[in-house]
Amino acid sequence: MDLTLHGHNALVTGANGGLGRHFAQTLARAGACVALAARRVGSLDAVRDAIHAEGGSVECVALDVTQAASVTAAFDAASAALGPITVVVNNAGIAVTKPLVDQTEDDWRRVIDVNLDGAWRVAQAAARHMVAHARGGSIINIGSVLGLRVSSQVPAYAASKAAVLHLTRAMALELARHRIRVNALAPGYVETAMNREFFASDAGAAMIKRIPQRRIGTPGELDGALLLLASDAGSYMTGATIVVDGGHAINSL
User: Fold this and answer.
1) Banded pLDDT at 233 (limits 50, 70, 90)
2) What is the CA radius of gyration of the chain?
3) Where would I find the H helices in 83-201?
């Protein structure tokens, strides 16, 4: 099974921190040339330098997933620098955490605009680009275990991620004839710098107890699923969701 990505050009949205940075580095280590995309290009300097330090090929592009013109421009810039984009990791996302009754219309709209509408804009632009260059490709939508089950105080996030999983299947059905695969990766709770303090708290410890493996994951534990979906090793997979969550989605508690 060949998990390498030599000869592939990848674009990763939300590549400026957390899982996006890790995904970009993983693809580069597997041999892909990587376009790092984020709303603020300057925020990509650290991951760009890290990939360069390991001998990888990398470019930075500005991309605001809430603006269709920005998404199109990012694909144009990335392909001009690297060549046709054959792998897209649709990762950008946000959450607003507060009780349902305190959520505002703006809270709901902001999350949906990034997590669902933004994922749609990027995936559609990726599909158009891949159809035009006629080499096929892989679109990987980053979902969440909360697209399969729910948690309190994040209604828009859970709804958006559930919709992304269904969007993945709908796109896969239409794009298969163009040799474009569309799959989703649904992580459970994975430790990042952003959430490390929470999981060290009493509330975080209580949440961990609800995970069958009684621990949270590490970014590296997503690598196998990511590379399977990105590489030719997953060539017969489309419309699938790979859940990497320590068993959280199957826990009835």
Assistant:
1) very high
2) 17
3) 105-112, 119-133, 155-175, 196-199
pLDDT band for position 252 (cuts 50, 70, 90): low
The three-class DSSP label of residue 190 is strand
CA separation, residue 48 to residues 34, 59, 191 (Å): 9, 7, 22
157 is a catalytic site residue: yes
The residue among 177, 164, 173 whose CA lies nearest residue 131 is 177
Identify the DSSP state of 15: T
- Taken in order 222, 226, 229, 233, the sign of the CA dihedral is negative
The phi and psi torsions of 207 (rounded to 5 degrees) equal -65, -40
Counting Cα atoms < 13 Å in the Cβ hemisphere of 51 gives 28
Q: Which two tokens stand for residue 12?
A: 């990763």
Beta bridge partners of 35: 11, 59
The reported pTM is 0.96
Instruction: Catalytic residue, from 23, 120, 157, 189: name it.
Output: 157
**Does domain 9-190+221-243 fall into CATH 3.30.1300.10?**
no
In the block, residue with structure tokens 């961990």: 208
Under the banding of pLDDT at 50, 70 and 90, the label for residue 199 is confident
